[in-house]
């Protein structure tokens, strides 16, 4: 008899359309009462894994049990044992919060009296009692997420599956959802969540399973994962360079230094973002929450009419566009057809036309490299590292040495996380815009 509530053995999924190996022979166990996070970039195979465990997808190979029930043979019992909150919003906006829950309870065949009590109980759990009789279309993103969690809990599942529970939410709301998830776990509900936010896995999970390209790369507590990267992490930021291709040529020299184990390369402007767009805010904006401004900027940047308005009214908005990263500009360029372009101020129009014509490529733009070096006894090796860099005429802008974070662990294990991250940014922008449209 084990305490495992989920057991996964050699699970594999190949999507026939396109012959994609989405999940590649993975095995793991989750103990009753754990919060277990599948952490990985977009396309790592997290949603596919959770969908197989929820019996929404049939595995190509392998086995799994949830609450002792086999996912292939006893899907009905598996479904009764789990609550699931999908990545994509799935509430009916034209119904009230309570009605959404009512519908779900009816689908689960719950008798009327039991239904009323249970709905009140789950509403209380997610602090939505006083909003239950509002239409969902009037809910904020965070309220919708909480209602979806409440819905997943109505039939008293043993395990709650949360697929990217805070995707697209602002940092404050995200934190509130984290508190709710922790609270549910204290009620002895086992939680399996997927996320590509490292801080989310770090904050919530008892154990983290890092996935990439369908495989498990590492699995342990956050603490132990960090310990595996003993030593120090040295982050070096450089002045702008024009040719990003030449830059890694100094890597072999640094790798020769005693104690250096790994180097990962990024761009200090664009690296490791969790928000969909990175727009540099002007300095000297006291008393204004920068996250609020970022959120507002993202809203404006997905609507050409609002953008036109902002450019006409605020010179600062024009400057912010000119300073924005190429990917953000490319997203904006897509919003403007020839007619709309005519209304755009000249300095921006010239830039948008160049982007539309494909005059810019990633390599042409300025690159502010940042490298992270995993190294034993960093304090001792740092002067040597700097010497090597100086010899190569690279200009260091900033040096920072710290103990490994989960982010370092991720980079270390997945290696090419920078490439994944930057493609994530584009996907995230798309998702963010899609979600906004869905919410309307
Ligand atoms: P995300 O957070 O973006 O959903 P993920 O880690 O959950 O990422 P999956 O959605 O499981 O990843 O996707 C894993 C791989 O399988 C990706 O290459 C994806 O393009 C592919 N894939 C997912 N669903 C399908 C499908 N229905 N048909 C074909 N390929 C698919």
User: What is the CATH T-level topology of one domain?
Assistant: Rossmann fold
Unreliable spans are: 270-290, 416-440
The H-level CATH homologous superfamily of one domain, spelled out, is: P-loop containing nucleotide triphosphate hydrolases
What strand line-up does the widest sheet have?
6-7-8-3-9-10
The largest pleated sheet is described as: 6 strands, mixed
Beta strands, count: 14
Taken from the alpha-carbon principal axes, the silhouette is globular
N- and C-termini, Cα separation:
49 Å
Ligands and ions found: adenosine-5'-triphosphate
CATH architecture of one domain: 3-Layer(aba) Sandwich
Q: Which CATH class of one domain is shown? A: Alpha Beta
Treating each run of at least 4 consecutive H or I residues as one helix, how many helices? 18
Specify the structural class: alpha/beta
Strand content: 15-25%
Instruction: Give me the Rg, rounded.
Output: 24 Å
Walk me through the structure.
- The protein is of the alpha/beta class and 440 residues long.
- Among the domains are: 4-225, P-loop containing nucleotide triphosphate hydrolases (Rossmann fold); 290-363, no CATH class.
- It has 18 helices and 14 strands.
- The strands form three sheets. The protein has a six-stranded mixed β-sheet, sandwiched between helices. Strands 2-1-4-5 form a four-stranded antiparallel β-sheet, covered by helices on one side.
- Helix 5 runs parallel beside helix 6 (171-186) and helix 13 packs across helix 15.
- The longest helix is centred in the C-terminal third of the chain and has 23 residues, at 417-439.
- It is globular.
- The relative contact order is 0.13.
- The structure holds adenosine-5'-triphosphate.
- Adenosine-5'-triphosphate binds at residues 15, 17-18, 20, 22, 40, 42-48, 164, 194.
